[in-house]
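User: Please predict structures.

Assistant: First:
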Amino acid sequence: MARTRRYDVAASGRWWDEADGRWLPAGEVHAWEQGRNETVCGLSLHRSRLSRFAGVTWTDVLPESGGAADAVRRVCPRCAAAAGRRGADSRPAWRRVDPCP
């Protein structure tokens, strides 16, 4: 069985959530995998001055999720295409069942 990837968030800004008592992403958000120095779309974290949010998952920052998306202004379209815009209630991704030889 294929391993599912877990994407965390890198963002251009941050804001303090008093209710949760932690920093949350703001501004433009990108998908990021832990252990990598770049986003899924290929931006360098350091050169782009993006902050990492290891405790915030990618699905939490999507506007339709309502999770940590309060201050998110823009979701990177390239990261959204690679990481997906699916939540927990969506159907599984399309998969070819019987490929041609």
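Second:
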Amino acid sequence: MSEAISDDVLAGHVLEWRREEGWGVLASSAVPDEVWAHFSAIQAEGFRELTAGQPVTFTVEQAQQDQFHWRAVSIWPGSGPLFAPGSEGGLGYSSGLDITFDS
């Protein structure tokens, strides 16, 4: 496993979410262990929570949090950002729109 993993934006999913306590567990094939996640790391407006099975993208750091060796730094529900923070492209998003006009 590369040490650069903490700078990468990883694709994964939510294993469990404890709504009342505001934390949960994420998984990604790019991280050897489960990842502890706190609601404050979710990049969204309003009440922030996740649901089990939900796809997410996230960044991590190595940390001792309860029995976990990894902690989520930023979490984007769904597909999230296309570029890692600080990368050449910066934090960015992409979208597409096809418009068809009737004559």
